[in-house]
## 1
Amino acid sequence: MNPKTKQIAASYVFILPALFLFLVFSVYPFFKVFQISATSWDGISPDAAFVGWNNFKDIFFDNPVFWLSMKNAFFITVLALTIQNLLALFLAFLCDRDIRGGNIYRVIFYLPPVLSGIVVGLIWNWIFDGNYGLLNHFLAFIGLGDICRAWLAHPQTALWAVAVIHLWKGFGWGFVILLAGLQSIPRELYEAARVDGANSWVVFKNITTPLMIPVFILVSILTILGTMQIFDIIIATTGGGPGYHTEVPMTRIVAMIVGASKLGYACAMGVIFGLILLVLSLMQIRASKMMRQV
Amino acid sequence: MSFTQTEVNYEKIKHRTMSFFIHIFLVLVSVSCIFPLWWAFASSLKTQETVFTDHSLFPASPHWENYANAWTKADFGLYFLNSLFYTTIVVIGVLLIASMAAYAFSRLRFFGKNILFFILISTMLIPIPGSFVALYVVLNKMHLINTRLGYILPQINAGLALGIFLMKTFFDQLPKELEDSAAIDGCGLFRTYWYIALPLARPALAVLVIFNVLAVWNEYLLAMLVLQDRTLMPLQRGLMAFQGVHITQYPLLMAGIVITTLPILFVYLLLQKHTINGISGGLVKG
């Protein structure tokens, strides 16, 4: 074998394991999902009945719970985009100044993001509990005993409570990325602006914001994708209840597989959900580009 | 003279008050991050009778035997070893397979290289939430449902895109001279990769380790779909299984939570520079 063919053969040996896993567990499922979505299949019987667009039709016209779950996830996403990311940005600003112990704060704020959604959910279950919950104890202590309730089991508050847990777990992640973005801005720019007599607001508007726009886009897209696909926290706290008040798309899709064994239907939901996520991300990029031009 | 003096003092006082309030705020946020964890730990040392009435943060008579019970009677020891096994295997798998592929993408020439790399990386960016349904179908077909392998292989695959991307970026920046001279000395391709390129890539490997340890240790969805036998379950799945059966045994549940969380805290605090720099650096630069 001449050296050239030998080198080419070696290259394929190097990428073969990665290629094999990638084809079997990423590429094949990606295409398979579309095929299964056009069938009615329980996952066990050898042949699946072809049903064409029926699953999609049913989801669009006969499945209000799925769209409610989409709305719920969207609600949490809006809160994450606003409250969570504004808090993260504010904290990043505070830590971007040369304050003492900045690194300790950074380590602590990133603690909730390294925990699992299950652990976080189980702990907060107890904080929000109706009988023994810490929140209710605290409220009773300061004299607000009237509003005590089982926060995760009450239709009016369950979605908010889940959102609070998600925001608590997520803000440290946004903080770390935004802080890294802020710290990548050259200090000389700030000093030059100060020398020219610019105040804090002008500096923020004309130097920080334009330079941070790529980071803002990144954080928003990852926030949207992460929050829309929220699952572990819901499973560990409400499981989608009370009623359907905290159902999200992922819990609906999983319920179709585990509970109902309707795999074709689950795949159709997955396709629709995937497309919606794609559109949301593209919209976010478009909106940010337009903002940059203004 | 005295006028400028007071002005300086005024500036100084303003600055000090400002940073005082900033610290108060930052400390409050920090407490909110730590308090739930500490609460879980304190509760794990109480008894079933006292856990709902005793609100102390440092229980007067800590019941450490809860941990022994959680470890043996509640099977958290079993789940722990499973988690340890899955995490170790997946991390080693990702490091080996991703670094080999990245080395080929960075150093070698072969047909379809750029297209392949592009497709691989685009899976990192395009969300395909539905495909886990099809993944379940594939595993079912391969008779990998309810097996350790069925839980391990998809997770190695899940770590590959980011792994190859990070490692290729690193290899691209690495000077080639060392490898060239090794080749001239008759060192084969695999030996060059193994003895020269890989040891140099330690910083990138560290970032990959921490990313994948966090991802695998905290994974729940796949474990829920793939594993039904208790003997195969990792910690996250074990926690849910425990709380489903013994919903009221709070101290043991909290001990399970601490057992689940301590290793991840340890790894995080040990490698926190790599973690935070890896996450922020990788994302902001990339």
## 2
Amino acid sequence: MSGAFTKTMARNIFIGGSAFFIFLFLALSLDTVSALPDRDHRENITDQVVLGKKVWEDNNCIGCHSLMGEGAYFAPELANVYNRFGNSKEAIKAFISSRPRDGVPGRRSMPQFNLSEEELDGVVEFLKWTSEVNDANWPPNIQG
Amino acid sequence: MKYQSQVVAKPYFIAAIGLFIGQIVFGLVMGLQYVMGDFLFPEIPFNVARMVHTNLLIVWLLFGFMGSSYYLVPEESETELYSPKLAIGLFWVFLVAGALTIVGYLAVPYATLAEITGNDLLPTMGREFLEQPTITKIGIVIVALGFLFNIAMTVLKGRKTAVSLVLLTGLTGLALLFLFSFYNPSNLILDKMFWWWVVHLWVEGVWELILGSILAFVLIKTTGVDREVIEKWLYVIIAMTLITGIIGTGHHYYWIGTPEYWQVLGSVFSALEPIPFFMMTVFAFNMVNKRRREHPNKAAVLWALGTAVMAFLGAGVWGFLHTLAPVNYYTHGSQITAAHGHMAFYGAYVMIVLTMISYSMPLMRGRAAANSNKSQVLEMWSFWLMTVSMVFITLFLTGAGILQVYLQRYNSDPQPFMVVQEKIELFYWMREYAGLVFLTGLVLYVASFFIGGEERAEQTV
């Protein structure tokens, strides 16, 4: 860096540049928040969906699965699991509640969470709602 | 060590290294679970091991940042720390809170932990990296505020340098942005959008300020290059960090329900995110080449240069690899992401903390300038073992990721997740072996602290 470029100039670029982009980011975030209702269909967030998200969190599902590509990569993507299971709520419920307590020898297995019927319904409704969010067509195919 | 109170950094660094060991052990457990699915099941399921692995990383890096600040700020401010007692008190609060949280993860099912810690009152748990019970999060906020107060008061009463001001800015941002971890709306999309305000704006934003200022401090100390030159570089680097990184958040807004314009904004700005890391590499090598003294702590200089190179590779190059929206459409949430995460965290944040420990620990242990040559040689062995094995971990995960993306998402006959996982098993085994080498490096690293003696004070060239 040449002598003409001083530390004060560098500092001013830092302050000015950061301030500008923080402001721009806030403006874009505001725009995004106002655009979301049309994309996330929040009118469909029922009490069951709310309960489902709570059950999802309380059992740390994100510790193995990804949801919309975020989370862990140990178990399948679940944003489209509703579609992958043939739009069958019952199939998803049956899968979750039939996990063997002691796992499967030599293989990865989902733990048995002992969810109640109400919690199972909630999780399924939550996953169905998630599958209907407009997420720019991700994942690329049904396998997630 | 110029000021007595700098020594409060010592317990922070010791705790950091202890938790680092725990992190790596659980990393190896998870790595094994990838290929032996029933390993430790159902006692320690994968999600628990992962939570311990990632949370230990975050906590020990925070210990490292706090220790670094307690060491750096008095020296930069040319005054004793405002309150060493507060620093020691908060150390114990943070350590006990952290340990209890980890014990909680391991001792009871997560749902039980959520219940007994009152997650129903203010639900914040069960989100990636923010799994801590709400009460732990409140503890983190209290510790962070007390720490910030202590550091800010020290800066205010002493000399104000660019290094300490940038550090303080980064730490303030860290504390403020963490508050978004308490925002957990029932709308998943809003939840995700603001979750990134913690995660992205930490690691691709304010943490880079902390990284930059610690690196600048160590380079000033070890090279003797004029402070004006180093601080000018620091400002330019962090300016580029925030100019690219803030809108760069958009690369997380491609596929989570947020509008499509983020695909353009996120691609353009995050493609520029490697620039500040590249500048950091040029900066570090330039300063070392222009050094005006031969600092006897060769290991610290090696760590500093290593940080600059590995941060550029891990955060810069491996980030760019999958950041463009058309590429990310296929790679999002695959082993490619895991590959990037590993090398970026190691290269940028693990290594900068180890740089600071390497520089300051000998001084806090009463040595004139550096550990004995024998100790440094062992430390440098650990540097190479950990760094090279991390490169291989990253390469193997990248190999796994490319195959995963092709088999599961890209070819005309996409296959189910678990089928693909079995096909790429070989890469997971290789990753696990590389992980064992990493552990060996870490053991040598710890051992290097137990070799006594010291090198004489620095010489001018």
## 3
Amino acid sequence: MDINYLALLPEIILSLFGVLVMLAVPFAPAKMQTRLAYPALLGLLLAGAAALAFPVSAVQEGMLFHDQFGTFCKLLFFFSSSAVVLVSISYLDGMGLRKGEFYALVLFATVGMSLMANSADLIMTFLGLEILSIATYVLAGFRRQDIKSGEAALKYFILGSLSTAFLLYGIAFLYGATGTTKYAGMVEAVSVSTDRIVALFLGLGLLVVGFGFKAALVPFHVWTPDVYEGAPVPVTAHLAVSSKAAAFLALVRILYQVLPQLSTNWQTVFWMSAFLTMALGNIVALTQNNIKRMLAYSSIAHAGYLLLGIVANNREGLQAILFYLVSYALMTLGAFGVVQLVGREDEKSVAIEDYAGLGHRHPYLAAALSVFLISLAGIPATAGFMGKLFLFSAAIESQMYWLVLVAVLTSAIGLYYYLRVIVFMYMRESQTGQLEITVPTPAALAIAIMLAGTVYLGIFPGTFLRLAGEAARF
Amino acid sequence: MAETPYSITILLLIPAVASLLTLLIPASRVSAPKWTALIATTATFVWSAMLFVQFDPNSPSMQFTQTVRWFEVGGFNVRYQVGMDGISLLLVLLTTFLMPLAVLSSWTIDRHLKAYMASMLALEVGMLGVFVSLDLILFYVFWEVMLIPMYFLIGVWGGERRIYAAVKFFIYTAAASLLMLAGIIVLYYASGADSFDLLEITERLAQGRVILSPVTEFLLFLAFFIAFAVKVPIFPFHTWLPDAHVEAPTAGSVILAGVLLKMGGYGLLRFCLPLFPKASLAFGPVIAVLAIIGIIYGALVAMVQPDVKKLVAYSSVSHLGLVVLGIFAFNHVSIEGATYQMLNHGVSTGALFALVGMIYDRRHTREISRFGGLAHSMPVYSALFMIMLLSSIGLPGLNGFVGEFLILQGTFLSSTVYAAFAVSTMVLSAVYMLWMYQRVFLGNITSEENRIVRDVNFREVAILLPLVAVAVWMGVQSGTFLRKMDVSVQNVIERVESAREQQIFRVENRGY
């Protein structure tokens, strides 16, 4: 079988750079370890350029797709991984964790995500998921001396392995039902006969468990707050954005492309999950005092909004999911970027109280965080609002009125906890005195890009929405 | 000056650009932000006054319209579409008129002045945007965006319980508006229009090209109505108002009372009545009763307030109850009166809040019992206070009378019972206002602090005189303003009238 290496070029570049970074680690002096971020960045940039340079020719048969949807996903992953790399430089320096493996792991995780979202075969999906997972298990425990980080890694690993087992079991059922693991073959098998419907349902259900875990959908979300709290902030950002997006996109591809015949069934499942995810995420976020935990629950809530797009089961829904993922990446990465800087060495200040008076001491950081929070809350003139508008609109087009009502009410709850941080930053005086926060250039650059993107998408969403629309077809 | 399609865009751009400029002023230029804000708001006022003169009162269509494609993807077509009819014109004028005065009344603010003035200017953009938007999404964007600067104004520069008040204000209004967002999208799909153009959707519904099922219409009406009812506020959605008003800084209260509350009334006139006339008619009696409860309840609660600012805040609940009653009496006179009364309330209550702020600056208290005999020590202040107070309670010759009279006359035409209850506002407002005046200004000076308190200074007179002048002008020459809105009010009422006729027709048909 011919292999189209050009189509695979982004993943090849990333893997090569990952290996290069790995090889450089033993030879680089401690001071230079975090400088390895720059080759990693270069790799991500080149991979992005490769993804753009070789436009989609024909859909490739075999293990991987090569289509617009996949390119969109790849670029999203490369973008968010670059942001993670940028903010992690000063973080690792500050923590005394001068280990270049970090960047290699981020690159490998990115390869995994890219394979997952482009996979044309369940085996490849599984492989991608494993590449992603193993890298992130290690990343979650990267602060080895910290007990919480260790706890996060262990919890994530144990629960993650369990969910992977579910996924694999689901793949087995689907194979049993259709006689193939290839998406194309499965589509055919499902359309020809549905006499193995039970196996098909079981397979789908188990698949949902596996992906639901990665995407932190209720009721598979229980690991999220602990892991997000314990993991180093850049890793938390990576988990909350890229890893979640990868699971979502892989799931979307399977649902829309492989199992559209079962749409009435999975719509019901995701309807309930969306309801629970939005409600639980928003309500529990209300009571959080640690900003990382708060953002963890908020990320659960946002997964719920994203599910609106799946439940809508129309092209607008898919388009809205893609647009929303971009907005979500911008605002969440931006928020975590600020959280990381405010947290300083050893993440000393991650309680919401620590943000008191930030607005007066660090007006730029506070203003940036305010924009990200306002965007997360879905107030207009930000990307978050536009994203919600499109998701709601898609769901309403499919007449999911009740679900939109739930989304509206839970968004209203969300206003409170996002505003709470702003209240602390601007309306309360600091109790602990002056905190000196240094803002290193790479992190500042990342935050500035996220800020510009959040505002740009909030005011001029047209271009990106069109791109998302073009990508939203299989 | 030739009419350009950019008239309204310029109106929005002046404060928007000024808001950004204010943020760029270096910290060493201490008083530059307030001058920037004053000049920008005055320029906006002058510009809107020119639009007021240019506005053709005989044309039934929107004027100064401009349409630019904003984003258009698939069936999703959102435009930057702005324009004004008589109702929006007057509310725009009210906004631009109050803004320089609000800036002047914030002259003594020294904490984070730059951010304060930038917020004020951003607030103006939002408010003006609400009144001129003709695209539903654009409208919603302005409607929500405006909350953020107001939230900061209350939360950062407010009184003791400012955080509670700011959060409550934000959550109440934003939560209610989210329902409206869902309503907007449902309306868009239900109307089958190819954009969020308000005029097109209204026309499609009016011509009967699309007929909403009664249930849809009722639910949509409610989704919009609740957002507006919270803003007005209509009893029982009013509980955020006393908190927000009392805790907001003086200029914040002036703008809250003067303009923000009007956005609710404007929404009812622009959206609820023309889009959902049948539901409006059906809910009319319920809303009228709520409005009457608001009128009486607001007045009674105002009567027992120990705090002057709270008293004025509750008087707003009462006065706006009257406005809502006027809107839901569904006739030309009452709606014209309601619109006029919104303007009056903006002027007189805005002035009262400014006045209360002045005394608070001097004495750092607003408790009625701490005052007495101020008329001796502050004769000019007391006189100006008296004029605005009389304007608020509707003394003939001042603006309040015209509005109240029109509303009551219109309501009487629709329902004598409602009118009978509503008339109580005349009596009750006189009671709480005059009683307050007596306790604060008349009698003997009871304490030394009240004896040595300074009278108004030049800046404060500069704030109050325009307000007094406008109150008199609107009371004597109401035609200047009423003429501009005549045709637009007729437009609103025609939609309701035709729906009413259809209903009567249907009922008659059923009879035979």
